[in-house]
Amino acid sequence: MAFSVVRRARRRPTDACFSHLNVFRELLVSEVRIIRQSMGKNELLPGTLDMMVLKTLTRGVLHGYAIAQLLRQLSEDILQVEEGSLYPALQRLELNGWIEGAWGVSSNNRRARFYKLTADGRKKLASETARYREMRGAIARVMGMA
C-alpha cells in the first residue's frame, strides 16, 4: 500500500460535523505512530486502509475521491491515500461484500462510482477496529507507553 506521510502544521477542522468522529481521528492519528519503513516508502500496517475506508463510509454514500479527501482532512493532511492504493482497496472491499458500488453523477457533473457500507461491512469494521485496538495496545506495551 502506498501512503505518503506529510508533516505539516496542525490545523483543527472548523466544520462542526467532524466532532462526532473523535474515535476515527484517534485511530488515524495513532496509526501514524505505527508507520513502518518499507523499501524507502512510508506505509501503514496491512489492513489499515480497508478499515479506514469502511469507517469513512459510515458517514454515508461517497465516491472514491471524496473518501481520499476525507481521510486526508480527518488526518490533518498526514495521510494521503494515492489512487493506486485506494481504488484496488475499494474493489477488494466490494468483492468481499463489505461495500456496494453504483455509478452516479458527482456534484461537479462527472460520472463517478459511489460506495456505501453493507451490513457485512459494518460487522467487518467492528471486528477490524477491535483487532486494531488490540494490536495498538500490544505495541504500546512493548514500547513502554502503556
Question: Can you describe what's shown?
Answer:
The chain has 146 residues and is of the alpha+beta class. The protein has a single domain (3-8, 19-137), classed as Arc Repressor Mutant, subunit A (Orthogonal Bundle), CATH 1.10.10. The protein has five helices and seven strands, in the order βαββαβαβαββα. It has a three-stranded antiparallel sheet with strand order 4-7-6. Strands 1-5 form a two-stranded antiparallel sheet. It has a two-stranded antiparallel sheet with strand order 2-3. Strand 2 (36-38) and strand 3 (41-43) form a beta hairpin. Helix 1 packs antiparallel against helix 2 (48-56) and helix 2 crosses helix 5 (119-142). The longest helix has 24 residues, at 119-142. The protein starts with a strand and ends with a helix.
